[in-house]
Design goal:
The protein is α+β, with helices and mostly antiparallel strands. The chain folds into two domains: 257 residues, Hsp33 domain (3-Layer(bab) Sandwich); 53 residues, HSP33 redox switch-like (CBS domain Like), CATH 3.90.1280. It is 36% helix and 25% strand. It has eleven helices and 13 strands. The two termini are 35 Å apart.
Length: 326
């Protein structure tokens, strides 16, 4: 069963989360195996992205979907992990070339240092004209050095976008996708834990908080094999047994991380309507039906000539100026 654990370091401006994706992650892989599956390096990349996306969604408590993407000019043209507010997640990748085993991120998506990472926040109840928020960062650091791990890219993103020190440890294989997040809390206003102006200035300075730096170093000592084989209680005790931790009840039931795909026949129908009558008629003339497959879950949606005609008939019946949502 997948787990998400949240905790604070009592009296210190530091918080943490630990995620272990088991059944949901295995369902993601099983659905992709039906279409041929992924090389081991791509499986690891998608698993790390899925774990990171769940951690980020849990960190911001956003009422909408969080979409994490990496894209570039390597054999992996695009990799996507998406998480809903209830921690339903899905993931997919587009692979167009040979992928060697054990290669780093640069060999997968950033061959010529042109790769990018995008994080999109799409509100659940968008207002008319409202656009999703998106932040994009390159897959290299401030000095132009290649970032070889998803964790490094996201740490850099959080430092740039939120001005918060963040430590991420990620790992994935065919059975489990897991991640540990440690983050410095802002120490100003109501969130101030220090009590003096001098301490505020010190704790707000990036990279200078001694408590965060100590805890981040402990987190960095966690090895990939430990993250993939040890349970949550063992990991937290092994790393932070000398630190005062306040743990919160782990997410369970409907709000624990789980596989969920948001595709539907209605959404596919709306997409086909957007293509227009001429495009759909061309496909029907060539193939006899329109078939659309979901890249995330493998679901196939088929529209015969009667189905297609009904799509555009419903549009014609729609009153002029209507803003009906498909």
């Amino acid at each position: 069963m997948s787990e998400l654990h949240k905790f604070l370091f009592e009296g210190l401006p530091v918080r943490g989360m630990l995620v272990r994706l088991t059944d949901g992650w295995q369902e993601v892989l099983q659905r992709h195996r039906q279409a041929g599956g992924y090389p081991a390096a791509v499986t690891e990349l998608l698993g790390e992205m899925s774990a990171a996306a769940v951690l980020m969604q849990g960190n911001i408590k956003f009422n909408g979907s969080l979409i994490l993407q990496v894209f570039g000019d390597g054999p992996v043209k695009l990799a996507v992990a998406e998480v809903q507010p209830d921690f339903g997640f899905r993931a997919t990748a587009k692979v167009t070339g040979e992928v060697a085993e054990g290669v780093p991120l640069s060999h997968l998506v950033n061959v010529n240092n042109q790769g990018r990472c995008a994080i999109t926040l799409d509100p659940k109840d968008r207002l008319p004209g409202q656009q999703p928020y998106q932040g994009v960062v390159p897959l290299y650091g401030d000095r132009g050095e290649r970032l070889e791990h998803v964790s490094e890219v996201l740490e850099h993103y959080m430092l740039q976008s939120e001005q918060l020190d963040t430590k991420l440890v990620l790992a994935a294989n065919d059975h489990l996708a897991a991640g540990l997040l440690i983050q410095r809390l802002p120490a100003t206003g109501e969130a101030n834990l220090s009590g003096t102006a001098a301490a505020q200035a010190r704790e707000d300075a990036i990279g200078l908080n001694e408590d965060y730096n100590r805890i981040a170093m402990l987190a960095a000592s966690l090895k990939r094999e430990e993250l993939l084989t040890l349970d949550a209680d063992t990991i937290l005790h092994r790393l932070f047994w000398q630190e005062p931790i306040q743990r919160f009840e782990a997410a369970t039931g409907a709000v624990q991380p789980h596989f969920h795909c948001t595709c539907s026949r209605e959404r596919v129908a709306a997409m086909l309507q957007g293509l227009g009558t001429a495009e759909i008629e061309s496909v029907l003339a060539e193939r006899g039906q329109v078939e659309v497959g979901c890249d995330f879950c493998g679901m196939q949606y088929r529209f015969d000539p009667v189905d297609a005609a009904q799509l555009f008939l419903s549009q014609q019946r729609q009153p002029p100026g209507s803003n009906q949502v498909q």
